[in-house]
Specification:
three-stranded mixed beta sheet; alpha+beta; globular; 36% helix; 42% strand; 78 residues; 6 strands
Length: 78
């Protein structure tokens, strides 16, 4: 993926890799993410300025539920 001007660009990138980037950018902690969810892949651009909007975009693109409480993120199937 590529980081540029408040955007992340993905090309068939596994969620496991995306999570590493989000940890680095936001300092988030991810708990109990299932292995099969980590294999989900994403292509496209996501804006990182607005983290709420970014979470919504990830949820829609990957058909997942992302719950953020403080700095802790939980990801589950819908």
């Amino acid at each position: 993926s590529v980081w540029k001007e408040n955007r992340l660009v993905f090309d068939d990138t596994p969620l496991a890799e995306i999570i590493l980037q989000l940890k680095y950018i936001y300092g988030w902690e991810f708990t109990d993410v299932e292995q099969d969810i980590l294999k989900e892949k994403l292509s496209g651009e996501i804006e990182t300025k607005d983290e709420h909007k970014m979470i919504n975009t990830l949820e829609k693109a990957l058909h997942l539920k992302i719950h953020k409480k403080g700095n802790v993120i939980r990801i589950s199937r819908i």
